[in-house]
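QA checklist item 7 of 12: single-chain prediction sanity check.
[x] sequence parsed
[x] length recorded as 119
[x] structure emitted
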Amino acid sequence: MLPTEMSVKIFNELDAESLCSATRTCKLWHYIIEESEQLWRRRCLLVRAVCQREVDSDRRAGLSWKVTFVRNCTRSCLKRDWLRGQYSRVRSAEELSSRKMVPLDVETWGEILQAELDR
C-alpha cells in the first residue's frame, strides 16, 4: 500500500473521468479521492478559467472543491464551445440534441452574444 501523499500524486495525473472510475476500485481509493481537496482544487481551477463567476460563487457559498468542480465542469465545456463559435451556425434545436446542455446564467449568455457579434 502506498502512502496517501503518493496516491494523491498519482491520482493527480488522471483526468476527471478516470478519477471518478478509480473511486469505484476499492474503499481506500474511494476515500482518498473523495477526501482530497488537492485533487479537486486543481481541476476546479481549470474550470474556473472559463466559469470564474460560477466557481467563485460556489466557493463563497462554502461548497467543497469537488462539488464545485462537478457543478461547473459541463457548464465550462459548454460555455467554452459557445465562446469559440462551435455553435455559430446552428439553425435549430435539433442540431444540438446530441450535446449535453446545462442552464447558463444571463451574464454568460451576454458573453456568448458579444462573442457572436464580434465574429
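[x] summary fact logged: The chain has a mean pLDDT of 91.
[ ] second reviewer sign-off
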